[in-house]
């Protein structure tokens, strides 16, 4: 039977209908920035396979780390046991993170990392005696994953999970941060978005356990870049009202915005940090939820005295080994220079799209480039164009975007930007 026929008959791809399945490319091999299809066609992975393959595919150092770990300890439960791959990962992460963020809980995926962060916040509030604090607040335009509680914190109107309606927990939303990255920062809270947060905390503070948001870059909720000063003001408000601050850096961590972590643009440290995606360089699924020592101590001193979560594949040695090797590559490479070079080229070469009548905005930050259209793109048409252009792009709604691997050279970045502008022109 034709493999693609089996795919259409039995596999259910993300965000698709089996009644009208979207076309798929059958990938035979991936190496560096390239995806090789079943007929030999090659496409640049301009998506870093949903943000994660920062070093490109099948980097020899990452492959070697996995092979070495595979021959000694592929997996062992983490309850009551530990291993060198997890210990090494913890040491590397603590060295990268701000002081105080040093209690690391390993998770299966980014969405699970968010779920764990929410559990941490509720348990910490209960340990403080604030048992009424069980809801969460966030800004509109955000995205935090597809698991149940994470869905409740995605934008309820424009987000992809709004149709679940009353089945999701009721959370509190404030407007998306209104001041763009690089714009002048107005001190008036009514203009900079912090006034709405302050009003919410004044009214609903006693029921809010934590405030979660993506620092500086709102990813799948709209690919928006906002002013870092919002985070500084939010940190102060959370401290004043006893609200636990959670940063979701699953998409932005490990260099994508030009800083190792997006929160560094603001110089702000959260109480809880979620990391994933590029953590393993795209080799394995792994995420971590990192808590401050103070918050971890509060949870441990409360009832029941333990964090109530424990995935079967927590701290899987293969994933931890890949993460250690990926972090070593970041430590040794000039990723800052690569991201700056890619970012400058994206800004320059995507700029002509601003003149197209169908384009609403063009924006870049770090190694992220976005063309926002005035109307939704036809994904099937873009899909076919990508094969011909040799560039893999996957738009959603009105957004056409790229986040290429950091190893993408200038000629290949130009190939990506040319494809994006051509898609925008064709859709106009």
TrEMBL record:
Its localization reads:
Cytoplasm
Kindly list the residues the record flags as site (Participates in the substrate recognition with KAPA and in a stacking interaction with the adenine ring of SAM).
15
Q: Which GO terms describe its cellular component?
A: cytoplasm
**What is the protein's species of origin?**
Paenirhodobacter ferrireducens
Which reaction is the catalytic activity of this chain?
Answer: (8S)-8-amino-7-oxononanoate + S-adenosyl-L-methionine = S-adenosyl-4-methylsulfanyl-2-oxobutanoate + (7R,8S)-7,8-diammoniononanoate
- Report keywords, A-Z: Aminotransferase, Biotin biosynthesis, Cytoplasm, Pyridoxal phosphate, S-adenosyl-L-methionine, Transferase
**PROSITE patterns per the UniProt record, alphabetical:** AA_TRANSFER_CLASS_3
Annotated signal sequence range: none
Biological process, per Gene Ontology: biotin biosynthetic process
Q: How does the record describe its quaternary structure? A: Homodimer.
Which top EC class applies here? transferase
Any Pfam family the entry gives: Aminotran_3
Any idea which residues bear N6-(pyridoxal phosphate)lysine here? 277
Which SUPFAM superfamilies does UniProt cross-reference here?
PLP-dependent transferases
- Report the sequence similarity comment from the record: Belongs to the class-III pyridoxal-phosphate-dependent aminotransferase family. BioA subfamily.
Job description of the protein:
Catalyzes the transfer of the alpha-amino group from S-adenosyl-L-methionine (SAM) to 7-keto-8-aminopelargonic acid (KAPA) to form 7,8-diaminopelargonic acid (DAPA). It is the only aminotransferase known to utilize SAM as an amino donor.
| EC code | 2.6.1.62
Q: What is this protein called?
A: Adenosylmethionine-8-amino-7-oxononanoate aminotransferase
Q: Which residues are listed for substrate binding in this entry? A: 50, 143, 277, 310, 394
């Amino acid at each position: 039977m034709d493999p693609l026929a089996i795919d259409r008959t039995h596999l259910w791809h993300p965000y698709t209908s089996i009644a009208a399945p979207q076309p798929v490319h059958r990938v035979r091999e991936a190496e560096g920035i390239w995806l090789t299809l079943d007929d030999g066609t090659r496409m640049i992975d301009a998506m870093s396979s949903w943000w994660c393959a920062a070093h490109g595919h099948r980097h020899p150092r990452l492959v070697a780390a996995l092979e070495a770990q595979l021959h000694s300890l592929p997996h062992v439960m983490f309850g009551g046991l530990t291993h060198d791959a997890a210990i090494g990962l913890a040491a590397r992460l603590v060295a990268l993170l701000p002081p105080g963020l040093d209690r690391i809980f390993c998770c299966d995926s980014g969405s699970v990392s968010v779920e764990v962060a929410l559990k941490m916040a509720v348990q910490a509030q209960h340990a403080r005696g604030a048992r009424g604090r069980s809801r969460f607040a966030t800004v509109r335009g955000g995205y935090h994953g597809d698991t149940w509680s994470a869905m409740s914190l995605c934008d309820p109107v424009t987000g992809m999970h709004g149709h679940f309606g009353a089945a999701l927990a009721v959370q509190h939303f404030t407007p998306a941060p209104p001041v763009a990255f690089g714009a002048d920062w107005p001190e008036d809270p009514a203009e900079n978005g912090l006034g709405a947060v302050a009003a919410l905390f004044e009214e609903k503070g006693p029921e809010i356990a934590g405030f979660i948001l993506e620092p500086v870059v709102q990813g799948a909720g709209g690919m928006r870049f906002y002013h870092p000063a919002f985070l500084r003001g939010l940190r102060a408000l959370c401290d004043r009202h006893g609200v636990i601050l959670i940063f979701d850096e699953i998409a932005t961590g490990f260099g994508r915005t030009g800083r190792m972590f997006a929160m560094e643009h603001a110089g702000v440290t959260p109480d809880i940090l979620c990391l994933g995606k590029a953590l393993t360089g795209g080799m394995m699924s792994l995420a971590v939820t990192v808590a401050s020592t103070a918050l971890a101590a509060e949870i441990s001193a409360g009832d029941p005295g333990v964090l109530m979560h424990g995935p079967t594949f927590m701290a899987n040695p293969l994933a931890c080994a890949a993460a250690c090797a990926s972090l070593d590559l970041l430590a040794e490479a000039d990723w800052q220079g690569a991201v700056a070079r890619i970012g400058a080229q994206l800004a320059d070469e995507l700029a002509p799209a601003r003149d197209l009548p169908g384009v609403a905005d063009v924006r870049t930050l770090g190694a992220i480039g976005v063309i926002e259209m005035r109307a939704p793109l036809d994904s099937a048409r873009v899909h076919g164009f990508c094969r011909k252009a040799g560039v893999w792009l996957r738009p959603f709604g009105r957004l056409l975007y790229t986040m290429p691997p950091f190893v993408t050279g200038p000629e290949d970045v130009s190939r990506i930007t040319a494809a994006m502008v051509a898609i925008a022109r064709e859709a106009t």
